[in-house]
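Dear Dr. H.,

I hope your travels went smoothly. While you were away I took the liberty of generating a structure for the chain from your last submission, since the lab meeting agenda had it listed for discussion. I wanted you to have the full record in hand beforehand rather than looking at slides cold. The sequence, exactly as received, is reproduced here:
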Amino acid sequence: MNVSTGGRRLRSRGATAALVCAIVLLPGPGYAAPGEPDPTTGQSIEDIRDQLDGLYREAEVATEAYNAANEKATEQEKRLTTLRKDLTRAEKRVKDLHSLAGAAARTQYRGGDLAATGIQLLLGDHPESALDEASQARQAMRGLVNVSETQQTARQKLSEQTEAATKELRKLESSRADKAAAKQKIEKKIATAERIEAGLEEEQTRRLAQLEKEREKEAEARWTDSGGSSGSSGGSAGKGKGKGPGGGTQVSGAAGKAVGFAMAQIGKPYVWGAVGPSSYDCSGLTSAAWAAAGHPIPRTSQAQWSGLTRVSLSSARPGDLIIYYNDATHVGMYIGGGQIVHAPRPGRSITTAPAASMPVLGVVRPGV
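The corresponding predicted structure, in token form, is as follows:
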């Protein structure tokens, strides 16, 4: 082997080694930080769908926690307002009694008789029956004792009301903290889901939409297999006659008004914590619909599940509420024909869907 040939081979091997090093050192695809899934890392479309569903489910669970804390805070604010008014009245009464006791003490010290009229006006149930001149002196002395006892009672009541207001304020602060924590969790989960969806390619988005349609068809079959009601009050939802909006069954009375209200909201956006009129979350829609029908119901899906009359799945009829998931964190209104109207999740609008599109916990009936 001559020198020139050997040199060429060495240069060739060197170039190959350099190329290999360059390939090894080339930056690979970026990976999201833990807890921030990246849809471009080779996941199947089913995995991406499950990931998104999980994030939105967690956001909905947090939304129900937010709604419950908000309801509790609202009631506590009302209670605190009432307690503060009572406290103001109690403080004024103690002040008036203190002034009266002082006046009585000064009068006695001077050796005179205290006119009982002021005492009667303050302590008596019927101030118009104030003492006549003949008995004023005797009743005045008795009134001094009453003033002292009443003052002691008033001070005790003032102390109790002060303590009650303080406790209620602590509860309110706790509820507000719960709201803030739930809000932070909701926003974090939604932001992660939106980031995943924004990173999807057009073909992935199309396949996701197709997957949802396939799941809807499967859900319709599941409803039939599970013995779900067709909502036959007023006519079969599967026939042209008697069909209501969205393919549901026509229904009258309060249930009909509730269904009509809910169906009229179709197309409005889901916004967590919202109760209308421009946007709703799932339980915000159902509570607003039944309020519009003249039958107010609890605000949250969990309270609706625990507080309303339960009926069997096979007897579900339009206007009934179908509660979903073991923790009762989603709700839709049954409209017949195996369909519900509901506010699905952030980024979506109020729409109809198969009643079996989510795991059914049970059915409740408002207005009974």
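Two observations you may find useful: The first strand starts at residue 309 and ends at 311. The two ends are 102 Å apart (CA to CA).

With kind regards,
E. W.
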